[in-house]
Design a protein that fits this description.
It is built from nine helices and seven strands, in the order βαβαβαβαβαβααααβ. With 256 residues, it is an alpha/beta fold. The protein has one domain: Rossmann fold (3-Layer(aba) Sandwich). The longest helix is centred in the middle third of the chain and has 29 residues.
Length: 256
């Protein structure tokens, strides 16, 4: 008899950054595999068009929170627990980017990108990681890194630094949370047509990226769905933690 390895029925997934292109597409897959899905976005008006189809479903609800503010995350956790009674899986998909030349980067820009891409991961892991540990049912935390996390990409200094921090936090917390049955893993996407990187993809940049990507194309956001469902599912990946899973068309395997 085949085992339903990827069945998430009875589990509640919290999607941080549900208003992003990649976050909303991954939320689709988690819902399709049976999960109750709490969508968390900073800007509700921007998020609603992306997740409108999901909000028609009984097992989905949209919540508002600034994920760089711990009090907001604590409040939204309370709201999610009141709604579903649990928070088993947390997907952190919030992110921002900038192509400002190094010597032109201001402290304000540095702080903003680091807050959204790194600080919010730390805070979300504090809030939802603690909740999972206290509940005693194990859990799964999935962060979204980037191929720029190492070696760093040119032109995106702060973004690369922030994603390197995500890798480090992911592996540190995998060790910290493992005794409690909470797994922590990262997905390392290659180049996907997300809103945050469209502005910096000049034709010259695209040509360079394609020459370094063996599959010679951008990824389709739906190609992240398998990885996120696998990492969320206990039966399929209950012994996987501290891993950085590449979905990058071979970008990380390239040299010269």
């Amino acid at each position: 008899m085949m085992t339903p390895l990827f069945d998430l029925t009875g589990r509640t997934v919290v999607v941080i950054g549900a208003g992003s292109t990649l976050g909303s597409v991954m939320a689709d897959a988690l819902h399709a595999h049976g999960a109750q899905v709490a969508l968390v976005a900073r800007n509700i008006e921007k998020a609603e068009p992306l997740v409108k189809h999901l909000l028609m479903e009984e097992r989905v609800k949209l919540f508002q929170a600034d994920t760089t503010v711990k009090a907001d995350l604590e409040q939204v956790l309370e709201e999610i627990l009141a709604w579903s009674g649990r928070a088993d899986i947390m997907l952190h998909a919030a992110g921002t980017n900038s192509a400002t030349p190094f010597f032109d980067i201001t402290e304000e820009e540095w702080d903003y990108i680091m807050d959204v891409n790194a600080k919010s991961v730390m805070l979300a892991c504090q809030v939802f990681g603690r909740s999972m540990i206290d509940a005693g049912n194990g859990g799964s935390i999935i962060t979204i890194s980037s191929v720029s996390s190492g070696p760093p990409l040119s032109r995106v200094f702060t973004y690369s630094a922030s994603k390197h921090a995500v890798n480090s936090m992911t592996q540190f917390l995998a060790r910290e949370f493992a005794p409690h049955g909470v797994r922590v893993n990262a997905i390392i996407p290659g180049f996907f047509p997300a809103e945050q990187n469209k502005a910096i993809l000049s034709q010259e940049r695209v040509t360079s990226i394609m020459s370094h990507t063996p599959m010679s194309r951008f990824g389709n956001p739906k190609e992240l769905q398998g990885a996120v469902v696998w990492l969320a599912s206990e039966a399929a990946s209950s012994f996987v933690t501290g891993s950085l899973i590449r979905v990058d068309g071979g970008f990380g395997a390239m040299s010269i």
